[in-house]
Amino acid sequence: MDDLRTVPARQLDKFIDDHLQPDARFRQQVKEAINVICTFLKEKCFQGAAHRIRVSKVVKGGSSGKGTALRGRSDADLVVFLVNLTSFQQQLNQRKLFIEEIRRQLEACQRERRFRVEFAVRSWWENPRVLSFVLRCPQLQEGVEFDVLPAFDALGQVTNGYRPDPQVYVQLIQECTEQGREGEFSTCFTELQRAFLRQRPTKLKSLIRLVKCWYQQCKEGLGKPLPPQYALELLTVYAWEQGCRKTEFVTAQGFQTVLELVLNYKQLCIYWTVNYNFENPFIGQYLKSQLKKPRPVILDPADPTGNVGGGDPVGWRRLAQEAEDWLSYPCFRKWDGSPVGSWPVPVAVCGPEEDKWACSIL
Length: 362
Fold this sequence. Notes:
The chain is α/β, with parallel strands linked by helices and 362 residues long. The protein has helices at residues 12-20, 24-44, 62-66, 88-111, 166-179, 190-198, 202-222, 229-243, 251-263, 281-291, 313-326, and strands spanning 55-61, 75-82, 116-119, 131-136, 144-152, 269-270, 297-300, 303-307.
């Protein structure tokens, strides 16, 4: 792959098509692997368990589920929603048991030579939230990495236009704040996270891929700590919503806008009201407390307890230093050497009517 640093602004769309957009073979490879594991989880996995375990649904999350996967990164997140889990606290207390059972059943399949799995060491800390493994089977040309996460089915059946009952968030906030585990249960809202991104225009998803490519190059050079990649995905959506909202746009301008938001991380305060808002007094009061936290604040649009922007000012500072360096590179220059420019985007969303603050523009 060409180094993104050397790509001129006018060639960014071609760079995305040539290097970042997954090709048909890659998509089919991941789809087949996901079908193998989904069938196993829904139909085979818990048949021999000591206690009756029922799967309500298996949901594809992560970049594969959102439609923003990068070429060559063959990984998939699968959230297994279990009827046996009836609260967020139960998910926390019992997820290890379900992960152990899934691993036992995968090992049994391996002994029967139905497929071969390689387990990642990172799956096994004291109370793991995820089982990580690589699936290998005859119909796949290469292994596909999986993260499987057991979860409480807080939402039930999710259809187009679905909006959660506010009581779901009341329960979430109560359980999270009592235990000091804000953001711990974001997997329960995977379908809402997925819907938030999947419905976006194709070109915006391409811009997200470009920002993720930039983030990965920064990560390779800087290592940890850095802000979570999901925060950069949300920043990209926010930049487009506030500064453009067109299905066709100049990719370099969108890219520059995102990097300028990163530069202004100390002022960022961003949230969405597509799934929750200030109408319920309990939720509204909690949201206000979230928005008063030290910047940057970027609330997960599916989970108000998940501030994906907070908790790591060192990582943001390091990423902002990278962004400042990058803005001098060819990908932000027109053919004549002049800057491509950026969209006018506020660094903060104005709060509810009774509690507004000034929203400065980039």
